[in-house]
Amino acid sequence: MIKLIALYRKPADAAAFDKHYNEIHTPLVRKYPGLRKLEITRVTGAPIGDAKFHLMAEMYWDDKSAMDAALSSPEGKAVIKDLLSFAADIVTIFHGDVAA
Amino acid sequence: MIKLIALYRKPADAAAFDKHYNEIHTPLVRKYPGLRKLEITRVTGAPIGDAKFHLMAEMYWDDKSAMDAALSSPEGKAVIKDLLSFAADIVTIFHGDVAA
Q1: Is A19 helix (H, G, I), strand (E, B) or coil?
Q2: Which ipTM did the prediction report?
Q3: How close is the nearest chain A Cα to the Cα of B68, in Å?
Q4: d(Cα A83, Cα A67) in Å, to the nearest integer?
Q5: Contact A12/B at CB under 8 A
Q6: With a threshold of 0.90, does the pTM exceed it?
């Protein structure tokens, strides 16, 4: 399995972020072709100090070709367009192989 | 469910990091009391630009009290002691509620 990870730093307006994320963005993410799983984590703290992150979304596909196809699909482009509209300055995206 | 996330930036010596992580650190992590799941992701890239991270480990517990108990147990202290010995400068740790 491969997963794409979107990690959001704390937004200036958390309530507005959450509303857009839940009501607009998540429904778009769920339309990714071939998506096997979506796991959303709401960050609540850190063992030492403060967490600098607000939310993490993890999207799973069978393999890299399935992920690449999803990202370049019309549904995938809609996700990116929306993402850039509300979180361009606070999101970091990377992907990796799930090893365990 | 709650999860603790350890996110590692790229180490100076990836081979040495991986060897220590796989042979020493992961066996210690697996001893956490009450651990429900461990998911390790080896970062392979980013859709745009380069990924600044090398690895992400996610540790799941039933709830915060179970996580707190694990972190303060002798096994948890052994994990932190080892972590600080090889990755203090590249690791970020936070936790959150798994919402989906």
Answers
A1: helix
A2: 0.94
A3: 9
A4: 17
A5: no
A6: yes
